[in-house]
Amino acid sequence: MTSARFDKNTKKCISIAEKPGTFGVEFHNKGYALLGLNYIYFPLKVSYGELEPVIGLVRRNFHGCSVSMPHKARAAGMVDALDDSAKKTGAVNTILNQNGKLKGYNTDFYGAKTALQKTLSVKNKKVLMLGAGGAARAIGHAVKELGGKLAIANRTKNNGEMLAKALKASLIGWKDIAKEQGYLLVNATSIGMDSKSETAVSKKTVSNFYAVMDVVIPETQLIHEALRQKKIIIPGCKMAVYQAAEQFRIYAGKELPESFIRQALDSFKQQNSTRLK
Predict the structure, then answer these.
(1) Higher pLDDT, 271 or 140
(2) Residues 62/63/67/71 CA torsion (nearest 10 deg)
(3) Does the reported pTM lie above 0.90?
(4) Which tens digits make up the pLDDT trace of 11-36?
(5) For the chain, what is the mean pLDDT?
(6) Phi/psi of residue 126, nearest 5 degrees
(7) Which helix (H) or strand (E) holds 165?
(8) Which domains, from first to last, does the chain contain?
(9) Contact 3, 33 (CB under 8 A)
(10) What is the predicted pLDDT for the residue at 134?
């Protein structure tokens, strides 16, 4: 692994979020170092009202921009072009600057689909997804493309209705979640991000599903409860690693080796081996 170097030719990539995390920074910069690329990746804290001027800053100064909660849907309307994944989901989590023209991608869709395919099959199975934001759009499209029978519940009913209509999914009232049962339960909200004890659903609801998926990293109380009940799990790190690998390919034009991706997944497992116990 070569040492980092920064000069006038360094390609600068950023991530923008209301609550920046550390995963992307570590993943991308380690990948650049491994492949000897003159790139750097760093996070910026960006509030809802700051998004538009920051996108303008990206156009003038940055090679790439990763977009996190809650900016993914709005960012789709601020770029010059969208690839198929972004058109399909109506959300952007990755922006590539092509000589001042910004193209938006949705690698969350790729990450969700890959994480699902490598863990279980949702074909003809009921999937209940909580949430209707950018991550939910990506996961919902992945579930539908893989043949799953999707139901959506969201705290804001109007947003849930719009996504359910777009995905031709059924809509479940937020207060009715406890009555639901099925094959896969997906938390596509930020519930569990701020508190180790916070969880999207009760233990009883977890027991009503065969498997549980969560977008939040590090591992949440929801995932640990699913483990205690011996459920199949898809923790947030799995989707995050696969989407980040695709994001890396878009920024750098190079594939990361499978060994690097496996190591990233193993690192998450080690970090969470004693968390929440």
Answers:
(1) 140
(2) 50
(3) no
(4) 999 999 998 888 899 999 999 999 99
(5) 92
(6) -75, 130
(7) helix 157-167
(8) 11-106+244-257 (3.40.50.10860), 110-237 (3.40.50.720)
(9) yes
(10) 81
What is the distance between the alpha carbons of residues 175 and 162, in angstroms, rounded to a whole number?
Answer: 18
User: What's the number of CA atoms in the CB half-sphere (13 Å) around residue 119?
Assistant: 23
**Strand segments (E) across 18-100:** 39-45, 64-67, 81-82, 94-98
Structure tokens at 144: 């539908």
* Rounded-to-integer distance, Cα 271 and Cα 21, Å: 15
Q: Which of the residues are catalytic? A: 72
The per-residue pLDDT for 271 is 72
Poorest-confidence range of 134-138, 158-162, 256-260?
134-138
- In eight-state DSSP terms, residue 226 is H
Measure CA of the first residue to CA of the last residue in the chain; give whole Å.
35
Residue 275: its pLDDT value, please?
A: 47
**Mean pLDDT of the 58-66 span:** 97
In whole angstroms, give the CA distance from residue 273 to residue 6. 36
Lookup result for tokens 């799953």: 148
